[in-house]
Amino acid sequence: MISQIQKYFLTSILLILLFTCGSARAEDDWFVSIYAGKASDNNLADIFLGETKWVYAQVLVLATGKKLWEYEDYLTLEAEGQVAWKWGYEIYEDEEQYKNTSSANPGYDWAEGYSYESQNTGFNKHNEFNLLLALRWQKFPWNNHIKTSFGFGEGLSYATEKPPLEKDPHNILHPALYENSPNDKPYDTSQLLNYLMFDMTFALPDYPQYQTFFRIHHRSGIFRLMNGYTCGSNYLTAGFRYQFSWPKFDISTFREFNRTTKW
Asked: What is the pLDDT of residues 43-91, one digit of tens each?
């Protein structure tokens, strides 16, 4: 005879199998993605014009989400959650009460009295958590050859510490050089900022669930509208996205199995 514990164990396995192997499937309205990239010193307008000046800072992102709404085959609304790992860029500081600070990057003109060699060494690493809603346009005339979509997402971003790249957005963290900073002080940033993304996905028409994409990963204070900060950061990234559906579970199948099976 099968013990009660074994019965519960086998029942759990059966539920998992029925759930994962059911024949009735909904449309692929869930997705997971992974992408990575490098920071750019340019603002969004310059990036869209094709200008890029790389900064020593990288990002790796894992994301998952779900399609919430669809208008025919043209437009969809998605919800997405992200976990990001950022590393690389750090601000190196002088000793005197950290009175004056300077950039980690050696490849630019330092202010008088500053040099890359005179600063401390090291690099920053922190995490970032993002939640967003995204509109995705899916109708392009070449979809019979390459299935394409364009996405625009807006949401909130929380960093586990204030990102150094956003404190020193142009590698010139020296008080006298900040024309737009109050009281001629260096920029500051906030852990909680606005999140913005633009991306393009591409897939083969016969395998639309397997997608590659390019994305701009952006954080900012929206011109002081959020927490009073003008800071921000832009990462140019690429990655892979897989769309799938949760199988529909028919409880009547399990009930019939349980009724006719001798334990």
From this structure: 888 899 988 888 888 999 999 999 999 998 899 999 999 999 999 877 6
pLDDT category of residue 99 using cuts at 50, 70 and 90: very low
Q: What percent of the chain has pLDDT over 70?
A: 63
Q: 42 falls in which pLDDT band (50, 70, 90)? A: confident
Rounded Cα–Cα distance for residues 71 and 65 (Å)? 18
Asked if 262 and 133 sit in the same domain, the reply is no
Question: Which of 190, 81, 201 lies closest to 137, judged by CA?
Answer: 201
Q: Is 5 left (phi over 0), alpha (psi -120 to 50) or beta?
A: alpha
70 and 166, same domain (yes or no): yes
Q: CA-based Rg of the chain, rounded to a whole angstrom?
A: 25
CA atoms of 39 and 235, how far apart (whole Å): 4
Number of domains present in the structure of the chain: 2
Which residues in 72-191 belong to E strands, given as ranges? 75-87, 91-93, 101-103, 125-137, 147-159
Shared domain for 151 and 251, answered yes or no, is no
SS3 145: coil
Burial of 149 per CB tally in 10 Å (0-12, 13-18, 19+)? buried
In this structure, the answer to whether residues 1 and 119 fall within a common structural domain is no
Domain that holds residue 80: 28-246
17 pLDDT above the threshold of 50: no
Whether 180 and 104 share a structural domain: yes
Specify the CATH number for the domain of residue 135.
2.40.160.20
pTM of the entire predicted model: 0.73
